[in-house]
Amino acid sequence: MRVLVLGATGYVGSRLVPHLLEHGHDVVAASSSEPRPDRFGRDDRVDAVRCDVTDPAMVEEAVADVDAVVYLVHSLDRTDFGDRDRVGAETVAAAVAARGVRHLVYLSGLVPDVPEDELSAHIASRLEVERILLGATDGAVALRAGVVIGAGSTSFEIIRQVATLFLVQPVPTWMRSRVQPVAVSDVLRAVEDALADDGPRGAVDLGGPDVVAYPDLMTVCGSEAGLSRVRLPAPIAPTSVVGLGTALATTAPFHTVTALIESLRHDMVCRPGATWEPRSGGPLLGLEEAVRRALTPRYAGPEGGLASDPGWTRGIPLLDLVPLPASGRAAARLALHRVRSLLG
């Protein structure tokens, strides 16, 4: 197929493009920034283009002559992410319908089993975008993923940083909710399955084989990093306060952190009977192995970090040479990030 990947330079997109090439597809790699063909190894099967999903003319041009669209655009780093993501979804859905594109795959988020008026703004927006895109073509699928495990993944990096920074960590009681993480390599497999003519359709949940509480996920991250941490219950801790504290204690973009923290109040697990199963029949990657790969320096698989990942997710090589304990190194990294942010 000829596949248009919208958000090709983001975390999942930067790993999906080479995955699609390995499986014989041609790719139109679209991002909101100026195209950099060298980012994808100058492969002549990749057309790198600029496309703002809220611009109808750009979208119309990008969608022309493709067999499938993979939609990976999210705007959590903005305060108006809900409005922007709605406009982007409507623009792309209209172009897909007008062009008669056969397949549309959207990487959505797991939706907790609660009334919609109790959903966080982040999950409510994902659900709204999902419904818009599913109405564009009969061959549309929304893959609902929770925490995606891999170096450079926003949700994983926030959890990893929090899990390794403090020796003693207060954990709000409402964070005992369950989560079903999924390795990024399995996300890529699910997208590939969704592009098949006989692949899944509609809203499909995407999760790995392990269901854990958030503190246990933090424990796995700490253990795989060889760190021992003490976690104490914090009965009184509003989500707004926790969001602010987490944003200050990590290098992640402020609005992204606060939006994601609001989603931790409910169980984020797959629905029985509505969960993706690999067409190949192969097993899903377990949580501990996925985290181990993500924390292995220079790991070459999808869970490994890339030079193109956001700067806030990457370490500082010179800092690794300084003989500091893990907490001290994490604190120094955070301080240097804050200084660089102030200096522009």
Structural key phrases:
single chain, alpha/beta, ComplexI_NDUFA9_subunit, 344 residues, protein-containing complex binding, seven-stranded parallel β-sheet, NAD(P)-bd_dom_sf
Mean pLDDT: 88
Q: Please write the CATH class name of the domain at 2-146 and 183-206.
A: Alpha Beta
Kindly report how far apart the N and C termini lie: 42 Å
| SSE class | alpha/beta
Lay out the secondary structure.
Elements: E1 2-6, H1 11-22, E2 26-31, E3 46-50, H2 56-63, E4 68-71, H3 81-99, E5 103-109, H4 121-134, E6 140-145, E7 148-149, H5 154-165, E8 168-172, E9 178-179, E10 182-183, H6 184-194, E11 202-206, E12 212-213, H7 214-224, E13 230-234, H8 239-249, H9 254-261, H10 287-295, H11 317-320, H12 326-343
Parallel strand pairs: 1-2, 1-4, 2-3, 4-5, 5-6, 6-11, 7-10, 8-13
Antiparallel strand pairs: 9-12
Describe the structure.
The chain is an alpha/beta fold and 344 residues long. It has a domain at 2-146 and 183-206: NAD(P)-binding Rossmann-like Domain (Rossmann fold, 3-Layer(aba) Sandwich), CATH 3.40.50. The protein is 40% helix and 16% strand. The chain contains 12 helices and 13 strands. The protein has helices at residues 11-22, 56-63, 81-99, 121-134, 154-165, 184-194, 214-224, 239-249, 254-261, 287-295, 317-320, 326-343, and strands at 2-6, 26-31, 46-50, 68-71, 103-109, 140-145, 148-149, 168-172, 178-179, 182-183, 202-206, 212-213, 230-234. Helix 1 (11-22) packs across helix 6 and helix 8 (239-249) packs antiparallel against helix 9 (254-261). The model has no long low-confidence stretch (mean pLDDT 88). It holds the Pfam family NAD_binding_10. Residues 7-110 form the NAD(P)-binding domain. GO terms for molecular function: protein-containing complex binding.
